[in-house]
Amino acid sequence: MWPTAVVSGMFYEQRTTVPETPADLRAEYDDQLASIVEQRGLEDTADRTDVDPAVLEALLEDGSPDLSLADAAEIQALEDDEPDAETIETMACEHLLLGMTTAVLDVDAVESHLEMELDAKEVQQKIERRAPMSFEEYVHLQHVIAGRM
Fold it and tell me: CA quadruple 11, 16, 22, 24: dihedral positive or negative?
């Protein structure tokens, strides 16, 4: 069964549309993650994840803090009926690969459209989870891929 395309959903879901800019997409996801932290409480979230409490506070203050994809997955996994963080991170990267296939994009094409400095090799390593990925990098990659579907 193919994943459902969403306009707005959890960051790890398959998307076929995105807002106009990567910043808009990041703001959407930051709001979702902040909502989880707010519902769970700062202290409980800090206790149940490896995310720095200062980063969690920045999320609550409408910031867009430095997060890794793994950090975002840990926060997302606190929601009821969500998979564990490792599964969320895996699904996120698999959906990037699926999106590249659907949009007929290779890593060179993705690199050429990125608004950040990553070369094709780095793009491939990050999507294949052979190198750590920041949440910002994930958002930019998702924006490029889904924006060309």
Answer: negative
pTM of the model: 0.91
Helices marked H in 41-128 — which ranges?
Answer: 42-48, 53-60, 69-76, 85-102, 107-113, 120-127
The answer to whether position 8 is within a domain reads no
Is residue 97 situated within a structural domain? yes
Please state the length of the chain: 149
Q: For tokens 């930019």, what's the residue? A: 140
Task: Kindly write down the DSSP assignment for every residue of 2-49, as one continuous string.
Answer: PPPPBSS--TTS-BS---SSHHHHHHHHHHHHHHHHHHH-HHHHHHHS
- Residue 57, in any domain of the structure: yes
Q: What does the pLDDT look like over 6-47, one tens digit per residue?
A: 334 688 888 888 999 999 999 999 999 999 999 999 999 999
Q: How many CB atoms lie within 10 A of CB 140?
A: 22
Residue at 7 is within a domain = no
* Structural domain total, the chain: 1
